[in-house]
Amino acid sequence: MPNSPLHIALVGNPNSGKTSLFNALTGLSQQVGNFPGVTVDKMLGKLSLNKEHKALLIDLPGTYSLYPRREDEWVAYKVLMGADQEVKADLVLLVADASNLKRNLLFCSQIIDLHIPVVMALTMNDLAVKRDIYVDAAGLSKELKIPVVVVNPRKNKGLTELKKVLLETAAAGISPAIDDQHFYDARTEVGAPVEEVKKLFPAISDYAALHYLIHHESFPLSNHEQHAIESIEKEFAFNPTKTQAEEIVNRYAHIRQVLKKHVSEPNPIEQKKFTEKLDNLLLHRTWGYLILLVVLFLLFQSIFWVAQFPMDFIEWAFQQAGSWLSVQLPQAWWSDLLINGFLAGLSGILVFIPQIMILFGLITMLEDSGYMARIGFLSDKMMRKAGLNGKSVMPLISGFACAVPAIMSARAIENKKERLLTILVTPLVSCSARLPVYTILISLVIDNKYYFGFLSLQGLVMMGLYLGSGMMALLMSYLIKSFIKIKEKSFFILELPIYRPPRWKNVLVTMIGKARIFVTDAGRIIMMISLILWFLSSFGPGKEIATVNAKYEQLIKESPASESQLNKQWSTEKLQHSYAGHLGQTIEPLIAPLGYDWKIGIALITSFAAREVFVGTMATLYSVEETDNNSLREKMAAAKHPDGSKVYTLPAAFSLLIFYMLAMQCMSTLAVVKRETKSWKWPLFQLGFMTVLAYGMSWLVYQLFS
C-alpha cells in the first residue's frame, strides 16, 4: 500500500445506489435523487478503510457503459481510461443493482476488460428479493474473478466488509486471473488495428487499445501519437460504430450465460407489479397531468401554510431583540451598526429558513420516491414543442431549488442544441433565492385569506409565479431555438426507477444542509451587503449631511413638542442625502415607469449578487430610516412616496414580482453558464435577453394593474 491516500473511483449505472453508498462511506450529505443525472461532476469524500489507512472516494457520474454520449458520462469515462488530468484512480468500486443485474454487468464487464483493480458492491438486494430475484454473490465473484460484496447503504450493512475488501484488493493489485479474463477479446475480434495500437502503448489492455482507436482525440496524447492512431484507423478501415455494436452483442451473450448460472429470476409471465400498476395511473394521459398539478399545488400551499408559524416567531424574536437593545445600549454609531446593520441583516436571512427547508424537503421526497423521473416522462411531449426533450425537465425542476446545479445537471442531455437551450432558459425557473422576495411582496399586497378553510390565496399566487416562470422558460426556448444553428438528431431514453418510500433521514439531512448552505453562503453575502449598505445609508457627502443635521437640530430647539415626528423626518432626509440615497435617486428615472422608488432601485443593484439580498437591503434601508422597531413587513407596508402615496401598491408589487421572476440577478449563474458553454457569448446573451424581458414584462404588468 502506498503512503499517500488510496484513490478509489466510485462508478455505476444511474439509480444503482451509488450516491447512497458514497454518503454512507464518507458521511457526507450529498443530495441523493431517484433519477439519472444527480451527480454531474466528480464529488470527493474522505474514507477511513481502517485506523491506519485512509482513502479518497471519487463519486463519478452514473453511466451505462464505456461509450459516453452525455457530458456527465465523459467525466466518468476519462477517469476510468486514465485520461483525466486531475484525477487518477488506483482502484474502481463498481456499484451494481441486484434487481437489474443484466444491464449493470455490461458496464462491469467493460471495466474488468480494462484490467484495472475492481471491486463490485452489490446493492438493492432487498428490492431484488421482493421481486423474487436471488443473486449468488459468491458464485458471481468466482465467475467474474473480482470481489463481490453485498451492501445496503440505507441501513449501513456490509460496509465494514466492503472496506476490508477494498484494502485487500488495493494491496494485491491486478491478479493473474484478471489479466486472463476477457468478456470481449478485442485482439481476437478486431485484430490488426488493436495489435498496432498495442505497439504504441504496450502497458494498456487490449480493450483499452480499442478505446484508443475510438476516442483517442479525447485522450491527452502527443501530436505524434494522435497522428499514429489516425494512420492505423485509415490503414485498416476501422469502423467504430460497427465494432461497438458487435461488442455489445458479444458481451450480452456472455452476460446471459453468467446470469443463468448465478441469478434466479421469476417467470417473466407474471402479475403486474406495484410499480407498473402505479405507473398506469401516474403516467395516464389525463390523470397523470391532473395528479402532477395537484402535487405542485400542495407543494406551494405547504410553503406558506406550514412555514407561517415559525416565520412569525422569528420576526417577533428579532423585534423584541431590537427593542431591548435600543433601550439598553447608548446612542452611538456602533450601537446603530449593531441594531440597524447587523441585526436587521440577520433577520432578513433567518426569517426565510422555514420556507427554504420545507421547499427542499418536499422536492427531496419527490426525487427519493421516484416520482421526479415520471415528471420527465410526462413532460417530454410538451418539452419537444419548445425545442427541448423530457430530460430537460430534470434541470428545470432542479432550477426550483437553485439554477447553478440545475445547469450543471444539463450535462445528462445528449443533444447539444437541447442542452444549450436548457442551460439558457433554466434561470427563468423560480429558484429558492427568489422565495424570500416573493414571500414578502405577496404578504404586503395579498390578503392572508383561506378558501374552504385550507386554500391559501397567498399560496395560489405563489404557485402562479412558479408555474408562470416555468411556462416563460418554455416560451423563450421556443423563440430561441430558431437562432441556434445546431443540427443533431434528438431522442429521449429514460429509465423509470421503481417506487420507493422516501428516506426520512435523507430528507431531514437535505433540509438541514440546504438551510445551512443558505445561512453560510447566501447569508455571508447578505450580511456583507447589509453592513456596506448601513455605511452608505448612514453617511453621505459631508456638507449635505451637515446641512440636514443643522436644519433639524434647529427645528427641534424651536419645537421640542414635535421632537418625535421631527426625528422621523430627520432620518428620512438623512437617508435621501446619504451615498445610498444618491445612488438610488440616480437610477430612479429609469425604474420609475415600473412603479419603483429609489430604495427599490438600490435593492435591484445589490441583489444582482444574489436575489435574496433584496430582503436584507430593504431591512437595512428601512431600519436606518425608521426609529421604531416594527417588523420589516410593517415598515414596507407603511412606506410612502414624497407625494404621500403608498410605495407597495398592488401594481408596483406585482411589477416587482415579475421583475424578480424573469431577471437574471445572479452572478453565480452567469459564471456556471460560462463554465458549461466554455464561452462568454451565451451568458452575456442570457443576461441581455432576461434583463430586457424582465423590464418589458414588469412595465406591462404595472400598466395593466394601475
CATH superfamily of the domain at 6-179: P-loop containing nucleotide triphosphate hydrolases
Determine the oligomeric state from the structure: single chain
Proportion of strand residues: 5-15%
Structural class: alpha/beta
Name of the CATH class of the domain at 6-179: Alpha Beta
CATH fold group of the domain at 6-179:
Rossmann fold
Number of strands: 10
Order of strands, main sheet, comes to 2-3-1-4-5-7
Overall form? elongated
How would you sum up the major sheet?
A: 6 strands, mixed
Low-pLDDT residue intervals, each spanning 5 or more residues: 29-39
Annotation field: number of helices: 33
**Rg, Å, rounded:** 30 Å
Task: Give average pLDDT, whole number.
Answer: 80
What is the percent of helical residues? 55-70%
Could you give the distance between the termini? 74 Å
Architecture per CATH nomenclature, i.e. the level-2 architecture of the domain at 6-179: 3-Layer(aba) Sandwich
How is this fold's topology laid out?
Blueprint: E1 6-12, H1 18-26, E2 43-48, E3 54-59, H2 71-80, E4 91-97, H3 101-113, E5 118-123, H4 125-130, E6 134-135, H5 137-144, E7 148-150, H6 159-172, H7 176-179, H8 186-189, H9 192-200, H10 206-215, H11 223-235, H12 240-262, E8 263-264, H13 274-282, H14 287-305, H15 308-328, H16 333-350, H17 353-369, H18 371-385, H19 393-398, H20 403-408, H21 416-425, H22 435-445, E9 450-451, E10 455-456, H23 457-480, H24 504-538, H25 542-558, H26 563-576, H27 579-591, H28 598-606, H29 613-625, H30 632-638, H31 650-662, H32 667-677, H33 681-705
Parallel strand pairs: 1-3, 1-4, 4-5, 5-7
Antiparallel strand pairs: 2-3, 6-8, 9-10
